[in-house]
Here is the input.
Amino acid sequence: MLEPGNNAELPPIPGKRYFTIGEVSDLCGVKPHVLRYWEQEFPQLKPVKRRGNRRYYQRQDVLVIRQIRSLLYEEGFTIGGARQRLTGNEARSDVTQSQQIIRQIRTELEDILRLLRR
Here is the structure.
């Protein structure tokens, strides 16, 4: 599902706490209106809403969106099938998402180390 090969073309997730819908759109390769639609279809996707109903996504939300994108666009699942897959695999996806976070942090730390060695 969230194997490195499936999302290799996507940019790394920056170390921020909150992301706007535009930022998430760029990070996940999905248009903002698609993200709003997915919020209605996938109960796992619950961005924080602030003033004026502005959405703020957290890293966990970005990982879920990438997982949904992979299921729909790369593995050919329907919306219902992807929803069922996500619901059935929440425990396993937690491990997979943790692994992706660790890989991301490691990449960022290696970049910092390269900068410090210059």
Summary: Residues 22 and 68 are 17 Å apart (CA to CA).
